[in-house]
Amino acid sequence: MRIVTSVAAMQRLALKWNQRRTPIGFVPTMGYLHAGHISLVGKARQSVGKRGVVVVSIYVNPTQFAPTEDFASYPRDLPRDEKLCRDAGVDVLFVPDDRQMYPARKSALFSTYVVEECLSRGMESASRPTHFRGVTTVVAKLFNIVRPDVAVFGAKDFQQAAVVKRMVRDLNLPVKVVVAPTVREADGLALSSRNKLLSASERAQAVALWQAIRQARQTVLASRKPIPASRLKCALKWLIETRPAARVDYIEFFNPETLQPVAEARRGAHMALAAWVGKTRLIDNARL
Amino acid sequence: MRIVTSVAAMQRLALKWNQRRTPIGFVPTMGYLHAGHISLVGKARQSVGKRGVVVVSIYVNPTQFAPTEDFASYPRDLPRDEKLCRDAGVDVLFVPDDRQMYPARKSALFSTYVVEECLSRGMESASRPTHFRGVTTVVAKLFNIVRPDVAVFGAKDFQQAAVVKRMVRDLNLPVKVVVAPTVREADGLALSSRNKLLSASERAQAVALWQAIRQARQTVLASRKPIPASRLKCALKWLIETRPAARVDYIEFFNPETLQPVAEARRGAHMALAAWVGKTRLIDNARL
Q1: Does B9 touch chain A (CB under 8 A)?
Q2: A37 an active-site residue?
């Protein structure tokens, strides 16, 4: 496995692969890898085959964090990530630093952003208004540097995957976006690098997000009529907040194509939620 | 010369050229071509050589026009443009329509924009606040479709060229941007497709923009001290507006790297201006 830290070197390598028709599979991450990320690497390998190359990037992108958020405390462990990537058969680990990604000369600061104005409204962006602008900008940059044929994103970040797919379509990026299923702990908690930040007690309570999804599924399946979304939200909020460390940020039911909220929860609708467990904000989602 | 109207076909062609290491030179235009555009085609050919390909796009991009602007009356003449491109040795003329560039399904409208937030402030954007957002978005799309090694822009649109160069750097687009000098009529008027919209009397008065540039150069050269920009602006505005059909939109003196206005006009500073001549808005610029 080759480790590349320079944007120019990564792009040269990618352009060479493009010329040789070597398919490139790409998994952009913020590091602190877990089995969810490794499943994305597997999907990337599956897409490009043996003669293709799989690139994983690790970059905790500052522009997708608000000043009040956990950029500084976001977990990092590069040696561990290196080993996991090597074991997973990754060909190139791309690990740029901030000066590589956002070079700032005094006379020419970074000033170009990619913004998606439709799917990036509501849900995550209600609490994190500049988050998706940071995501689309860094993903566009990474796509231009790594020049992948296929890029794999996790379904845990459902809205992010939808926004990235829309960006790819709108800007005519020649990249196929694959969304791979969420990987869960035995009790159902969605794998996330942020789970590391939970205390033992918080970890036990964090399963509330998944339990809320299961409860919503059961309610919808058991009911002969669609359920008013507002009533179900209240019930699920109550369910989650019975755990002392848990506070709901949002619960939403929506059309999985348009991300438009629906007034009634029924089978086929999608549910997403965010909750604070102690000082850690977790998200999850699933189809009902 | 091949004419391509489909985005998918153009991108397939470009990806094939990338794989064959065929250099691609690209000249994005809004059509109604004149000798200025043809000089850009010459630069593109010079950059990619005989074994390279030169692509010209013709697309009057709606997203860079405000609803009040001249999108509908912008001059168009495809048969004439085709002949000019053929004679200039263009390999591919890419002529997408709006449905190709901004496909709008009911459930998934176009919603992603590229925005440059620094160089695109002031001057052109003061009168045309959403103009550069439209330019950067369509140029990013065209770059992703045509995948050029070199793209050539005209110096007449000085701020546009600066914004595009910044976008290319910030988003890591692997494209070399070349800016080619403004081509002028015998009397100094900068070539522009919009000159077609001028009446004979307006055409005679339109030379005022170039005369203001020459006057500014002479004033700066003749003076032992830098000239307060505000004083020079007043004098030039008066000079231009002595023509009955001419009204100044802005005159600006600025640092050509940062586009920051300077308080004093001196040699090496850059000057740009926009003026209405009748109902047509013209721009010009030059180094003093």
Answers
A1: no
A2: yes
The answer to whether position A186 is within a domain reads no
All residues of chain B having their beta carbon less than 8 Å from the beta carbon of residue A28 are none
Q: Which residues of A touch B117 (CB under 8 A)?
A: 111-113
Residue numbers of chain A with a pLDDT score lower than 50: none
Provide the annotated active-site residues of B.
37
Q: What is the CATH number of the domain that holds B203?
A: 3.30.1300.10
How close is the nearest chain A Cα to the Cα of B2, in Å?
21
> Is residue A158 located within the same domain as residue A211?
no
Last residue of a domain, one of A148, A180, A212: A180
Note down the domain range covering A206.
193-287
Q: What is the pLDDT of residues B250-276, one digit of tens each?
A: 999 999 999 999 999 999 999 999 999
Domain edge (last residue) among A130, A151, A180: A180
- Whether residue A112 and residue B109 make contact (CB cut-off 8 A), yes or no, is no
Within this chain, do residues B124 and B65 fall inside the same structural domain, yes or no? yes
Average pLDDT over residues B2-21: 96
Mean pLDDT of chain A: 96
| A78 and A151 housed in the same domain | yes
Q: What is the pLDDT of residue A106?
A: 65
The distance of B109 to chain A (nearest Cα, Å) reads 8
The alpha-carbon gap from A167 to the nearest alpha carbon of chain B, in Å, equals: 6
Total count of domains within chain A: 2
ipTM (interface pTM): 0.93
A-B contacts at Cβ under 8 angstroms = 96
pLDDT at position B107: 66
Same domain? For B130 and B231 the reply is: no
A86 is a domain residue: yes
Residues of B whose CB is below 8 A from A135: none
Interface of A with B in 130-189 (CB under 8 A): 136-137, 140-141, 144-145, 147, 166-167, 169-174
Q: Which residues of A touch B160 (CB under 8 A)?
A: none
A188 located within any domain: no
**For residue A145, what is the domain's CATH number?**
3.40.50.620
Question: In this structure, are A174 and A248 located in the same domain?
Answer: no
Q: In the 3-class helix/strand/coil scheme, how is chain B assigned residue by residue?
A: CEEECCHHHHHHHHHHHHHCCCCEEEEEECCCCCHHHHHHHHHHHHHHCCCCEEEEEECCCHHHCCCCCCCCCCCCCHHHHHHHHHHCCCCEEECCCHHHHCCCECCECCCEEEEECCCCCCCHHHHCCCHHHHHHHHHHHHHHHHCCCEEEEECCCHHHHHHHHHHHHHCCCCCEEEEECCCECCCCCECCHHHHHCCHHHHHHCCHHHHHHHHHHHHHHHCCCCEEHHHHHHHHHHHHHCCCCEEEEEEEEECCCCCCECCEECCCCEEEEEEEECCEEEEEEEEC
Closest chain B residue to A109, measured at CA: B118
Report the gap between the CA of A182 and the closest CA in chain B (Å): 25
Domain assignment of residue B41, yes or no? yes
Overall pTM surpassing 0.90 (yes/no): yes
Tell whether A175 and A198 lie within a shared domain.
no
For residue A258, list chain B residues with Cβ-Cβ distance below 8 A.
107-108
Q: Do B255 and B157 belong to one domain?
A: no
Please give the backbone phi and psi of residue B272, each rounded to the nearest 5 degrees, phi first: -135, 150
In this structure, are A28 and A143 located in the same domain?
yes
